[in-house]
Design a protein that fits this description.
Elements: H1 2-5, H2 30-63, H3 85-97, H4 106-119, E1 123-127, H5 133-139, E2 144-149, H6 152-161, E3 166-169, H7 179-188, E4 223-226, H8 240-252, E5 257-263, H9 268-278, E6 283-287, E7 290-296, E8 315-316, H10 340-344, E9 355-362, E10 365-371
Parallel strand pairs: 1-2, 1-4, 2-3, 4-5
Antiparallel strand pairs: 5-7, 6-7, 8-10, 9-10
Length: about 375
C-alpha cells in the first residue's frame, strides 16, 4: 500500500508558440486545430489538380504532329481524282523511254495507257505482276487497281516496297500442255459449270479462278489486263484460266462495257482462248502482241455460250501501229493504211485481195476488219 500511495501522476501540456503566449491571445482549441488541418488538405488537393492538368496538357501537345489542325466535325474527306493530264503524259513518256528487254513495247504501253485514260479513274484488274505494274497503278490514280499473280512472295515483296498496292496470289492448277483437254471440258460445260454468266466464287469449272477474296467477284471491273501468269513453256500455268475468268467477270459485272486487253496475243494459248471466251465479234483492235476486246454484260450477253457467231468469216486485221504517231492516240485503235505497202502487210494473214472495213466508234476509237 505504501508503494501505491507514493505514485505521482505527471500531466503533459502541448507547448504553445511564443507569439501565442502573450496577453490577449485566445487559447488553442481542438476545433481550431481541425480547421487548420482541413485548409492544408484543400490546398494540397488544389495544387495536385493543377499539376495533373498541366502534365496532361503537355503530353497532348507533344503527341500532336507539327502543323496539324484539329478535325472539324462532319468535315468532308476529299476523294482522289484522276491524274492531271500533264502528269499522265510525263509518266507515260518516261516509261516508254526506258523500255528494256522483257517489257511491253512502247506502243503497247501507250495503247494500254490510252484505255486507262479514257476509262479512268476506274476499276482495273491486272493478271500478272511485271515491270509495268507500278505504271498501271499510277495511271489509274483515283481508281482501284488490283493485281493477281501466281507468286505469293512476289506479291508480298511488291506490297512491302510500295504501300497502297493491292495484290493477291493465285494457285493455278493448269498447264500450257493441257490446253486442248481444258478447252474440251469448258465447251462441254458451257451451259453448266463453265457458263459465261455466274459467280465464280462457287464455280466448279476447271478454268475458273475461285480462290480470290470474296469481294473481288462483286466488283464491276471496267478494264481487265491479262499479262500473266507465265506461259512460255509446256509446264507453265498458261493464261487459259486468266482469260476465261476475265471473260466471265466482264459479262457478270453489269450492263456496262468492260475493256479486256490480252498481252502476248501471238502465242497459241492467248490467241485460241481469246477466240473461245472473248470472241472475235468483240475484238476491237489488235497489233503485234496486244489485243483489245470490248465485252458487254447484262442483256447484251448470251447466257448459254460466250460467242453469238463462232462461224463468222471476218476477223480483226492485225496491222502495225504507226509508232511515231502513237503519242497522239488516246485509245487503243487500228488505223487504216491506204497505201499498197500497208495492204501488202496483210498478206501473211489473208490472201490478197483483201477488203478492209473500218468501223468508227468515236473520233478517237477506230478499228478495222478484214472480210474475205
Amino acid at each position: 500500500m505504501k508503494g501505491f500511495a507514493s505514485t505521482r501522476l505527471i500531466l503533459l501540456h502541448p507547448s504553445l508558440p511564443k507569439h501565442a503566449a502573450g496577453a490577449g491571445s485566445p487559447p488553442a482549441t481542438p476545433l481550431t486545430a481541425l480547421l487548420c488541418s482541413h485548409h492544408r488538405l484543400c490546398l494540397v488537393a488544389f495544387l495536385s489538380f493543377l499539376t495533373f492538368a498541366s502534365l496532361l496538357t503537355l503530353l497532348n501537345t507533344a503527341a500532336r504532329p507539327p502543323n496539324s489542325t484539329p478535325l472539324l466535325p462532319h468535315a468532308a474527306v476529299p476523294v482522289a481524282g484522276p491524274l492531271p493530264p500533264h502528269l499522265f503524259d510525263a509518266l507515260l513518256h518516261y516509261a516508254c523511254k526506258s523500255v528494256t528487254a522483257g517489257q511491253m513495247a512502247d506502243f503497247e504501253i501507250r495503247a494500254v495507257a490510252g484505255v486507262l485514260r479514257s476509262r479512268g479513274p476506274c476499276n482495273l484488274l491486272v493478271f500478272g505482276l511485271g515491270p509495268e505494274s507500278l505504271l498501271w497503278h499510277s495511271l489509274n490514280h483515283g481508281g482501284r487497281t488490283v493485281f493477281v499473280d501466281e507468286n505469293q512472295y512476289y506479291i508480298a515483296h511488291y506490297e512491302e516496297r510500295h504501300p497502297g498496292l493491292e495484290g493477291y496470289d493465285v494457285a493455278y492448277a493448269t498447264k500450257v500442255s493441257d490446253l486442248q483437254p481444258l478447252l474440251a471440258d469448258a465447251r462441254a460445260s458451257v451451259a453448266g459449270d463453265c457458263r459465261p454468266v455466274q459467280n465464280l466464287l462457287f464455280s466448279d469449272c476447271r478454268l475458273a479462278i475461285n480462290d480470290l477474296p470474296n469481294h473481288l467477284y462483286e466488283v464491276a471491273w471496267d478494264v481487265i489486263l491479262v499479262d500473266g501468269p507465265r506461259g512460255y513453256s509446256p509446264e507453265s500455268p498458261g493464261r487459259m484460266s486468266a482469260i476465261y475468268t476475265a471473260a466471265v467477270l466482264a459479262r457478270s459485272g453489269g450492263a456496262g462495257p468492260t475493256d479486256v486487253l490480252v498481252h502476248d496475243y501471238g502465242r497459241e494459248v492467248e490467241r485460241v482462248c481469246s477466240a473461245e471466251f472473248l470472241c472475235e465479234e468483240n475484238l476491237a483492235a489488235a497489233a503485234d502482241q496486244l489485243a483489245h476486246f470490248v465485252i458487254h454484260g447484262g442483256a447484251a450477253t448470251r447466257k448459254d455460250d460466250f460467242c453469238f457467231n463462232r462461224s463468222t468469216t471476218s476477223t480483226a486485221a492485225i496491222l502495225p501501229f504507226d509508232q511515231p504517231s502513237m503519242g497522239n492516240i488516246s485509245n487503243l485503235e487500228i488505223l487504216r493504211h491506204e497505201s499498197q505497202r500497208d495492204q501488202a502487210s496483210l498478206s501473211p494473214l489473208y490472201p490478197l485481195p483483201v477488203k478492209l472495213q473500218v468501223h468508227e466508234i468515236s473520233p478517237s476509237v477506230r478499228f478495222a476488219r478484214a472480210v474475205e
